[in-house]
Design the sequence.
């Protein structure tokens, strides 16, 4: 297996480095495996994913499984003392726990989930490689005073701040709560994954300490965002708990705040192709810590057939 | 015409005065005219309004009329120098103009709109009295970084801060933009107008200077809000420009922030029954200024039949 270990000479996706805030074309594929027969899901769904940059699969997990995940989330949010406080993000105003990182390593159940063939098998197919978890996190957007998360492409950050070379990674969001229009659901711009939106500004030192609460750098200009939305529109990922939203690393997404009493939570797993393992950041900053972006823990996953009973 | 000019001895709607944050029953009617024959709209709509505390009427204004209103809004937002800066509210972060008050007095077109029989005639029927404008404002929620507006009952503020004795007032929101699920549309709790949610805390001096940007006092407790939503649910007022949302002064409402590029704007007119003119505030504070709450300018409206041509 030949692994890139150094930055490429030419940066195809320059951002936050003085380059004008233009929109560039993607040069990487979206779906890396062209063999429909090998697809673990209906190949039309794969084509949808390729076109839109995301796919929503309903009822992937049973009510029992979701229940186990929720219990585990409750446990983790409660016993926060056991978790390195660096790995937790709290809401700026209320102090409530908003995200817990690295749950695929710190929780037995979420570790199993990261290996679950329903997820890992699909990631392997789309990326046509062995995969590992680049980042995992439990997101909890509180009711009443849940803050917005501004539009961004994850890849932009992972490239600039983590050194992810190419667009050969994807995220899976497993919803633990019903997502309605009014409680700040994930919004995605279909088709935006085919464009790379160069962001202006320089990345400040230790930017992640702020950006995980409120992203200020690595966000599109108003003009570029408007141009994407005018061209592609906005899709809102509403649906019942237990669905999975799979989205390409470069799909522009964000979410509004939430003043309703209904919290919104999900488990977020980022699968990266082993061939796309991170190198030095595409900036002059130090790489982000291991708990945000795997650099050492990149053992390829062996996908496992899981059932409800495995999560009890 | 006998007008109440003093506070009543017993405050039926105590709030922000040390009273526990409980939910009391409304003692006032919602629809004051029981004569269906006199209704200017289908009486079933009036019954809907009575039950839910609001009513959405689509296509009340033509595209030409909405266009005139938008041009007038643009003019007012641009020539802000002509407006007393007290009467304008800007977004805390961006400094963009968010609201302009008293437009029924400062704009010829919006003055005419406040007299338009389609609005004023309906207000007269529901309140069964002559009416006047208690407050008018142009709301502009910018795209990209539009802030949320937390849940509140307008009556709670108008009672405590302005001295409005009873629930005999209503608001009309004339939408100037399409309201979609994702650009922070008005959310209402159907049925909440039948309850009075007592708020805790004391009103700080000159509270309006902050509360018009971000409401901190006069908002329901999390527990009371949850109880209302559990009982009644949430209605989201989406729809095309040109619709009118009519809602009772005591209907609990709010709106999420808006990170989409689409601004959201409306004209907001509050009709109060002349018999319900304001007295001294139900607090120990000074009354809010005239531009937020009419105290002197309470001449009854004479409703006028208007057509597109009147707004040109």
Sequence:
């Amino acid at each position: 297996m030949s692994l890139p270990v150094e930055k490429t000479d030419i940066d195809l996706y320059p951002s936050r480095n003085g380059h004008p805030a233009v929109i560039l074309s993607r040069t990487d594929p979206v779906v890396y495996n062209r063999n429909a027969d090998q697809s673990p899901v209906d190949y039309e769904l794969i084509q949808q994913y390729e076109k839109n940059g995301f796919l929503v699969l309903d009822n992937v997990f049973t009510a029992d499984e979701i229940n186990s995940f929720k219990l585990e989330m409750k446990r983790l949010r409660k016993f926060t003392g056991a978790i390195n406080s660096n790995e937790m993000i709290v809401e700026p105003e209320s102090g409530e726990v908003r995200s817990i990182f690295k749950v695929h390593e710190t929780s037995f159940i979420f570790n199993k989930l990261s290996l679950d063939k329903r997820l890992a098998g699909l990631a392997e197919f789309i990326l046509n490689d062995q995969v590992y978890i680049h980042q995992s996190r439990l997101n909890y957007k509180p009711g009443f005073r849940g803050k917005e998360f501004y539009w961004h492409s994850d890849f932009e950050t992972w490239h600039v701040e983590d050194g992810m070379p190419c667009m050969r990674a994807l995220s899976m969001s497993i919803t633990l709560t019903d997502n309605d229009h009014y409680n700040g659901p994930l919004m995605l711009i279909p088709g935006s994954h085919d464009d790379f939106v160069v962001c202006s500004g320089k990345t400040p030192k230790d930017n992640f300490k702020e950006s995980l609460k409120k992203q200020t750098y690595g966000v599109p200009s108003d003009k570029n965002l408007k141009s994407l939305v005018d061209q592609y529109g906005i899709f809102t990922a509403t649906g019942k708990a237990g669905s999975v939203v799979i989205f390409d690393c470069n799909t522009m997404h964000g979410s509004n705040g939430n003043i309703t009493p209904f919290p919104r939570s999900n488990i977020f797993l980022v699968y990266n192709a082993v061939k796309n393992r991170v190198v030095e950041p595409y900036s002059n900053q130090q790489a982000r810590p291991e708990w945000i972006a795997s650099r050492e823990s990149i053992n390829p996953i062996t996908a496992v057939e899981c059932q409800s009973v495995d999560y009890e």
DSSP finds eight helices and 13 strands in chain B. The helical segments of chain B are 43-52, 63-78, 103-106, 108-115, 117-127, 154-162, 208-211, 222-232.
